[in-house]
Amino acid sequence: MKCVLSMRKAIEITPTESSSETVREEVRRRYGASASGKSSGADDCCTTTNATDLGYSAEDMAAAPEAANLGLGCGNPLAIASLKQGQVVVDLGSGAGFDCFLAARAVGKTGRVIGVDMTHEMLSKARENAQKNGFTNIDFRLGEIEALPVADNSVDVIISNCVINLSPEKQRVFDEAFRVLKPGGLLAVADIVATAPLPDYIKADWVAYTGCMAGASQISDLERMLRVSSFEDIKIAPKDTSRSFIREWLPGKRIEDYLVSATIEAVKPRSVVG
């Protein structure tokens, strides 16, 4: 089934004109429906991607509970995170827990993984997956990535997979990431970035927004926000090969001319002034 631009909100206010809370509520609705299996074709088809296309290995697929993989990512953040035994990891927008389960194996019994998601349905699915599969070093918490339920200076690594683009307040997300990371801590995420200004008809469409397209920031804007949050060693690496699966998110609209998946890395300085 091909994706089509949504007419559901055609006579209502667009994402670009909506309040931050309205945008978050629409994202919450879409991903809650995905978790419960109640999403419509228009809601569901735009961002479902095979995990191998995102950089996950067969070993990764076998290591995580099958029910945790909803195919909603745009990359593999663990490939750049270089996790170590004993580390504390936070996953922003943890969904059904796929990346959390892989991270939990990497950090071992002496480490801990905190998955944060604002969707009750996703949290229920993630907690069920953890219980059924005997994961005891993961804590799934209800919260928004703009206001993390995590203590200051307590985290070694923050990961995220195609979630920050969904936030209407990205500067707050990076500020929160900086707050909870320990000095020297790493932000290592996979996300969608814009390589050219998006057309107005894409920015105004709710399905394109909740499908991880219309909310994407340009690389220069992401670099600026990370600097404002006081991160250093910022590296943003676009992956042009991702255009092949991004094309399928909105067939016939040439969305791949504007968007690409990227790895985003940044470090909290070991010595923070102020």
Task: Write structural notes for this entry.
The chain is an alpha/beta fold. It has helices spanning 20-36, 41-44, 58-63, 78-81, 98-107, 120-132, 170-180, 200-203, 206-210, 219-228, 243-246, and strands at residues 88-92, 112-117, 138-142, 155-161, 181-194, 217-218, 232-239, 259-267. Strands 1, 2, 3, 4, 5, 6, 7 and 8 form an eight-stranded mixed β-sheet that branches. β1, α5 (98-107) and β2 (112-117) form a beta-alpha-beta unit. α1 packs across α6 (120-132). The model is unreliable at 1-11 and 40-46 (pLDDT under 50).
Spatial shape: globular
* N-to-C SSE string, H for helix and E for strand: HHHHEHEHEEHEHHEHEHE
Overall strand count = 8
Oligomer: single chain
Characteristic terms for this protein:
globular; single chain; alpha/beta; 8-stranded mixed beta sheet; disordered N terminus
Describe, in short, the structure shown.
The protein has 274 residues and is an alpha/beta fold.
